[in-house]
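Entries read sequence, tokenised fold; example below:

***
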Amino acid sequence: GKVTGDKAVGGILGCVMGGKTVIGNCSSLGSTAENTTGGGYEHGGIVGFIDSTVESISINNCLSKCEIGVSKESGYIIGNYQDICQTWTLKDISYIPKTFTGEGTEAKPLLISDADQLAQIAEYVVNGSDYGGKYFKLTKDVTYKGPKIGDEKHPFCGVFDGDGHTIDAQITSGSYTGLFASLDGATVKNLKIKGTVSSTGEGEGFVGAVAGYAYNKTVIDNCYVTADVSGTDGNIGGIAGAMSESTISNCRMDGNVKNTGWTSTGGIVGGILGGGNSAASGSTSGQASGAALK
């Protein structure tokens, strides 16, 4: 179906007011759009508006395929919310536009075939979609000059299968820079990355071709990097900048890694494992240079 209105329009809930709210195991497969005559306010793929009187809200394992109308306050997950100082939890949230082929399952993954789709995923992750439990597959080589996927506070949590294809990346950002800014319990496998991945400005660390930071049992497997990776502070690695309780396996780094800062530079993760408490296996033939090489 289709949900429309001028204010507080959501794929599942229009407005949340006060108390404790839990939204779980819900899907919104229709579309939500603003009132075309009124300009529209507060339109979201799951919730249109959350009031400041809300004590706590938890949104878990929800999927939205809504086509979000352009309004003054809109978002893929939540249209707008007033300052909430109480408990706030988002987990396993997915916004999937209808232009993507696939269902996000292991048997029918969401297929990515161009840079525009990668850029869309980057935008959705920053806006609240972590894609926990969702599967993606790259179907061809891609030249990507778009933004990193996610940021320090918005990790990618799904499964990304490169299927042996190459991403020619030109990614420049601040700290937490890579194809993926951060990975939380995610899997990235069978992927090749070339080009350049770098942080800019003084004191910008956590940089890696695959991920700036990976944690919570993330797995990076069978990835091959020839990209040049550089940063200006700690934790600069060819595959990942830093990891915690995660694993790198069967990976190779043939690019160069440069750190002009003061800690941890290396081929795989800060010098195999200079930026975290994780297991890393692989090889490197590139040059690693920095102020504190391990």
Remarks:
- The longest strand covers residues 240-253.
- The chain has one helix and 31 strands.
- The helical segments are 115-126.
